Every structure is written in C-alpha cells, then in structure tokens.
Amino acid sequence: MREVIYMFAMSLDGFIARADGAVDWLDRFPADDDYDFSTFLDSLSGIVMGRVSYEAARRGGGWDYGRWPTLVATRQPVDDLPDGAFALDASPAGMLTALAEREAGGRIWLFGGGNLVRQFLDAGLLDIVEIGIIPVVLGSGIPAFGGMQADRWLDLEYASPLKNGTIHARYRVRREEAAKA
Fold first, then answer.
1. Ramachandran angles phi, psi of 142, nearest 5°
2. Where are the alpha helices (DSSP H) in 25-74?
3. pLDDT tens digit string along 79-133?
C-alpha cells in the first residue's frame, strides 16, 4: 500500500534551511541512533526529490540514494542523472504513477522543500509528516511548508525527546482536511 511521507529536520521556528539553502546548523544535531534513520530508509520503496534538494544531494559528486527509484521533480532538464534517478515535470499523482511504474508503490519519501510538499498536500496525497525539530531559532530561511496556504490539520502519532536535544514527532495528515483544500 502506498504511503507518502515528508520526513525532514527543521528549526524550532519552522525552517528547513537558511535563506541561501545552507543547513550548517544541522551539523550540531546529526540523526543519531535514537532517530533510527536507517530503519526509515529501509522502509522506503522510492523517493520524490525536489530539484534544489537533488542539486544539494549531488554536490561533491556523491549519490546516497541509488537503491531506490528516485524521481527528481523539475521543469528543467537534468544532465548526468545517477542510476535509478529520473527527472519529470508532472502533477503529484503523475509522479506517484511514474514511481509505481518503476516498482516503487510502497512508502515514498517526499524529499524536498515546502513548495513540493504543498503540491502534495493540495492534491491530498501526503499521508505522514515526520519531523526532527532542532532546538535552534534561525529567524529566517526556507519554510518547511512553503509559506502561506490553507490550514492543514494533522493527528499526532508519536513524539519523543532525543538524547541530542531534538524532538522526533510523527503526524498523520487528516484526509477530510486534505480533501477540503
């Protein structure tokens, strides 16, 4: 069964990166064993990655996502895609169909910024929001949910303080709210 999850880290004031895209503040709070990131990765069948996130992941030439079909959501051509990655300009439903055609019909990681997440919310296709809340106030930056939009209600499934000072929380998106948007 397909499940789309937006799993990410954000500052206490709701930013996923500084205005220039830097995430240097995350270096003080790496995902440790308490966060169980490896189990999360093992649960995935595919990834929808925003273009800016893709470019950040490719800096230095590396690619840590080769074991999953990875769709890069973009309107522009992408040169030199790594094995298993493909670029597509499509609706959220179209993106999920394209991943399913590559046998990624289970848990899909929405790995991108707020604008990509908002598209999935608007389409009623985001199921889970899982957050590592980092105890830092940045004051400005790239918002986790892409700025102004309709109210979205979620139900808490899990929350726990971690040894490194972060909060790990998981929410399920209310379907009746997503359908009204």
1. -90, 115
2. 37-42, 51-58
3. 889 999 999 999 999 999 999 999 998 999 999 888 899 999 999 999 999 999 9
Place of tokens 């991108």: 112
CA angle 157, 133, 72 (to 5 degrees): 85
pTM, full prediction: 0.90
Encoded tokens for 29: 């709070």
On whether the CB atoms of residues 85 and 72 are closer than 8 A, the answer is yes
How would residue 146 be classed by pLDDT, with cut points 50, 70 and 90? confident
Q: Which amino acid is at 66?
A: G
Give the domain range for residue 106: 3-180
Give dist(CA 94, CA 77) in Å, integer: 17
Position 33 scores a pLDDT of 63
Helix (H) or strand (E) holding 92: helix 92-100
What's the total number of domains in the chain? 1
Extended strands (E) in 83-143: 85-88, 107-111, 128-134, 142-143
Contact predicate 39/169, CB 8 Å: no
Domain with residue 136: its CATH number is 3.40.430.10
